[in-house]
UniProtKB/TrEMBL annotation:
Keywords: Decarboxylase, Lyase, Pyrimidine biosynthesis. NCBIfam families: pyrF_sub2. This is Orotidine 5'-phosphate decarboxylase. PROSITE patterns: OMPDECASE. The lineage of its organism: Archaea, Methanobacteriati, Methanobacteriota, Stenosarchaea group, Halobacteria. Its EC number is 4.1.1.23. GO terms for biological process: 'de novo' pyrimidine nucleobase biosynthetic process; 'de novo' UMP biosynthetic process.
Length: 273
């Protein structure tokens, strides 16, 4: 089953478009978990237990797992999320020349020997061939970075092309063309409300992953209003959920569960409008 059909079903089941970002910064993991064999996994497990009823997806960011223990923590995390029936969107922002990107594409190949996510974020900078193995995988979702939430996103993404369109608009147009298998979405930051509105009009059928609410102060209302295509899309918060209980010691997960529920309710107000 296609990723966006699975995501649609998950959104309906939990009545939520919340993406819970699993970015377990080792320096912020509670002290009582630090002597665990794999502290990041112990942390994620508690977060998953506390938030899964509110999660449309879990979104681990690869940056927090790229070392031997991290890789094991990621494998455990993905398997555990799947055990709770929650799809996993691996935020890896990958792409490279064909020979290399074929290896990256194993990250969303269920037959690979390593961890396998349901969807992935990719970087369009190297063009179509760098994304081909992801695009050809009919089952996995491919979220193309389009207009990112960070201030420096303007450096390249806002550049005006000879045609008069901005580079990020060209990326959106290309992503729409690349969507032959109905598996492509865009990443558009919640800190970019005007671009969100304009992109929704430009590519009405592409679901967006909208990061940047919570710690980055993005706009939750526009994230929902323009992030969803036919009801399908994701609004991500990472630190705002997983570290909500940073001062609560052993009870950190209760606060995380509450934060996920609060975000779900807030987003649902706008979904219902
Ligand atoms: O691709 C992403 O998810 C992403 C794109 C973007 O434009 N901005 C952005 O913040 N992200 C990711 O979304 C998460 C945001 O984390 P918080 O700011 O803690 O909610 C991080 O994992 C970022 O890497």
């Amino acid at each position: 089953m296609n990723f966006f059909d699975r995501l649609h079903d998950r959104i309906v089941t939990v009545d939520s478009v919340v993406s819970v970002g699993l970015d377990p910064d080792p320096s912020r993991i509670p002290a009582h978990l630090q002597d665990h064999d794999l502290p990041r996994w112990a942390f994620n497990r508690r977060i998953i237990d506390a938030t899964h009823e509110h999660a449309a997806v879990f979104k681990p960011n690869a940056a927090f797992y790229e070392d031997p223990d991290g890789f094991r923590a990621l494998e455990e995390t993905i398997a555990y999320a799947h055990g709770k029936d929650v799809p996993v969107l691996l935020d890896a922002k990958r792409a490279d020349i064909g020979n290399t990107t074929r290896q990256y594409a194993e990250l969303v190949d269920p037959d690979s020997s390593g961890p396998s996510a349901d969807a992935i974020t990719v970087n369009p900078y190297m063009g179509r061939d760098s994304l081909q193995p992801f695009l050809a995988n009919e089952e996995a979702g491919v979220f193309v970075l389009c207009r990112t939430s960070n201030p420096g996103g303007a450096d390249l993404q806002d550049l005006e092309l000879e045609s008069g369109e901005a580079l990020y608009e060209r990326v959106a147009a290309l992503a729409d063309l690349w969507n032959e298998n109905d598996n492509v979405g865009l990443v558009v930051g919640a800190t970019k409300p005007e671009e969100l509105e304009e992109l929704r009009e430009q590519v009405p059928d592409l679901p967006f992953l909208v990061p940047g609410v919570g710690a980055q102060g993005g706009d939750a209302e526009v994230a929902v209003e323009y992030g969803l295509a036919n009801g399908v899309g994701l609004v991500n918060s990472s630190r705002g959920i997983i570290f909500a209980g940073e001062d609560a010691g052993a009870d950190f997960d209760t606060a995380a569960g509450r934060a996920a529920k609060r975000l779900k309710k807030r987003l649902n107000q706008y979904r219902d409008e």
